[in-house]
Amino acid sequence: MTTHSTRMLILGSGPAGLSAAIYGARAGMRPIVVQGIQPGGQLMTTTDVENYPGFRDVIQGPWLMEEMQAQAEHVGTRLMYDTIVEVDLSKRPFRLIGDSGDVFEGDTLVIATGAQAKWLGLDSETALQGKGVSACATCDGFFYRGKKVAVIGGGNTAVEEALYLTNHSPDVTLIHRRDSLRAEKILQDRLFANEKIGVLWNKAVERFVDGGGTAGLVAIELRDTVTGELSTLDVEGGFVAIGHHPATELFRGHVALDKDGYIEVETGSTRTNIPGVFACGDVMDKVYRQAVTAAGTGCMAALDAERWLAEVEFEMAEAAE
């Protein structure tokens, strides 16, 4: 068992965690990033990225994360391959134990563990991810300009995604397995008033249909949840919008979470309810969920942590005089 100590311990290595690392390293915090179960975060499974500032051409998600990682290491970050299984945030330094048995101690802790989109769990869905099936309209909607698309879900996220897609598509279908939506009434009113959107009630997705070759998604096979009847909807884009899982189970009972499991932070800040612990990226952001906003809050977390630690150390020095 080895103990690794740092002034800034970062858990998670997506855009939020690596941005925090870059800013933390430049502030002399000598950060350690524990990369977790998915090094690089969700962008490692994203092919074309067209909306990250600074690149006129489409870039690849894994390449972007490799560049961020290289930059973080270049300015002095240590990246550790481990998965945290236990945390102790009751005192400083904060103590995290990895699956390897190694102990990670940080004077400050930045949580950037992200969130995962919920999927339907179909084999055809997995096979066509990035080939017509997506879980993020704001990320991928631009690729479906002028094409017929569908959104699966019935909550706020699904309705918001459907409304957003009308910026690109003249024909959007919302597919919901029940006969009424869970979304807020004001969103439902906007949905029903939009002539570009149609709704299919009591329909569950049986299969995403692959057109073969380079065609990708060409249709969605549906089953009526009342009659069991099968039908087919021709589409070129299918957006699964049934929610997200924030990766916060490890911190339940340690850090304040909201009703959906996201880490609560002070408004306009990345501070959690525990002094010295900060959260950034999709683990605390249920609204935007973009790589660029995750990177922005990662910067905020590093600056918040550095300033907080400087204040604590100044007060300790004054008290010792």
TrEMBL record:
Instruction: Report any one BP term from Gene Ontology.
Output: removal of superoxide radicals
Q: What class of enzyme is it?
A: oxidoreductase
Oxidoreductase: present as a keyword of the record? yes
Q: Which UniProt keywords apply?
A: Disulfide bond, FAD, Flavoprotein, NADP, Oxidoreductase, Redox-active center
Q: What Gene3D superfamilies would the database entry show?
A: FAD/NAD(P)-binding domain
Q: Can you quote the record's cofactor note?
A: Binds 1 FAD per subunit.
What Enzyme Commission number(s) does the record list for this chain?
A: 1.8.1.9
Where would I find the FAD/NAD(P)-binding domain in this sequence? 7-298
Return the InterPro entries for the record: FAD/NAD-bd_sf, FAD/NAD-binding_dom, Ferredoxin-NADP_redctase_2, Pyr_nucl-diS_OxRdtase_2_AS, Thioredox_Rdtase
Any one Gene Ontology MF annotation carried by this entry is: thioredoxin-disulfide reductase (NADPH) activity
Name the catalysed reactions.
[thioredoxin]-dithiol + NADP(+) = [thioredoxin]-disulfide + NADPH + H(+)
Q: Is Magnesium among the key words of this record?
A: no
- Might you report a single GO cellular component term? cytoplasm
Cofactor needs: FAD
Summary of subunit composition and partner proteins: Homodimer.
Q: Which family does it belong to?
A: Belongs to the class-II pyridine nucleotide-disulfide oxidoreductase family.
Q: What is this protein called?
A: Thioredoxin reductase
